[in-house]
Amino acid sequence: MIKIMFFGKYSDVYGSEKHVSIEGVTVGQLLEQLHIYDAYMVAINGNVVPLNAKLNDGDEVAVMPTVSGG
After folding, report:
1. Burial (0-12, 13-18, 19+ Cβ within 10 Å), 61
2. How confident is the model at residue 59 (pLDDT cuts 50, 70, 90)?
3. What is the third-level CATH fold of 2-65?
């Protein structure tokens, strides 16, 4: 089971967190399954990772959008 935590505009769509039963996929594949194409930063277990990082059972993934303001 992987815990995904969503921030900013993603939490409006998916809620603050979601649990999924997938493993062995990459961060990029996970984002593609969730239809997220503009993530600014993704972290696994508190460490920022590239899109080709593999997910394992028990991982906590944080998905953060680009921050805008003025």
Report:
1. buried
2. very high
3. Ubiquitin-like (UB roll) (3.10.20)
